[in-house]
TrEMBL record:
Gene that produces this protein: perR
Protein's name according to its UniProt entry: Peroxide-responsive repressor PerR
Co-factor(s): Zn(2+)
Family per similarity comment: Belongs to the Fur family.
Cross-referenced InterPro entries: FUR, Fur_C, WH-like_DNA-bd_sf, WH_DNA-bd_sf
Entry superkingdom: Bacteria
Keywords carried by this UniProt record: DNA-binding, Metal-binding, Repressor, Transcription, Transcription regulation, Zinc
Native organism taxonomy: Bacteria, Bacillati, Actinomycetota, Nitriliruptoria, Egicoccales
Pfam families the UniProt entry points to: FUR
Coiled coil spans: none
Cofactor details (free text): Binds 1 zinc ion per subunit.
GO MF terms, alphabetically ordered: DNA-binding transcription factor activity; transcription cis-regulatory region binding; zinc ion binding
Length: 145
C-alpha cells in the first residue's frame, strides 16, 4: 500500500473527505525530513506544483494531528511549531542553537522519566517530549576553527 492509499483510508475511516490539498500536504510531510516549519512545508507543496493556501495548510496539519498521523513539536520559546509524521517512540529533541538543526535521540531515559512520574508522583503521563538545546557537532567544529 502506498502513502496516498494510507492517507485516503485514514481520512475516509474518520469521516473526512480526501482532497487534493490534503494529499499535497501529506506528500510534502512524507518527502521532507522531520521537524519542518509550516513555511518549509508550504515551500515543498509549491515546489511540487501544488497550490494550498495558508489557512488550508494549517487546517490540514491540525486535522492530521487530530488523526494521529502527524505531530507538532514546539522546540523553543520563539518556535511556532515544527511538524513531522507521527511515530510511536518518545525521544529527546536535540536542537542546535546555532544552525537550528533538530535531531532525535531515542533511549531508555524517556521511559524512566515516564515511570518515575507515573509511579513516584501518581501523574498519568500522556506524552513525554523533551527538548535539549546546545550545538551540533558541525557547529562545534565551526566555532573551534
Amino acid at each position: 500500500m502506498d502513502a496516498s492509499d494510507e492517507l485516503d483510508r485514514t481520512l475516509r475511516a474518520s469521516g473526512h473527505r480526501v482532497t487534493r490539498p490534503r494529499r499535497a500536504v501529506w506528500r510534502a510531510l512524507r518527502r521532507g525530513r522531520g521537524h519542518r516549519t509550516v513555511e518549509e512545508i508550504a515551500a515543498s507543496v509549491a515546489a511540487a506544483g501544488d497550490e494550498v493556501d495558508t489557512a488550508s495548510l494549517y487546517r490540514t496539519l491540525a486535522l492530521f494531528e487530530d488523526l494521529g498521523i502527524a505531530r507538532v513539536s514546539r522546540l523553543g520559546d520563539r518556535d511556532a511549531g515544527r511538524w513531522e509524521l507521527a511515530h510511536p517512540d518518545e525521544h529527546f529533541h536535540l536542537v542546535c542553537q546555532q544552525c537550528g538543526d533538530v535531531d532525535h535521540h531515542v533511549g531508555t531515559l524517556v521511559a524512566q522519566i515516564r515511570e518515575h512520574l507515573d509511579r513516584g508522583h501518581g501523574f498519568a503521563v500522556e506524552q513525554v517530549e523533551l527538548v535539549v538545546t546546545g550545538r551540533c557537532t558541525a557547529c562545534q567544529h565551526t566555532v573551534a576553527s
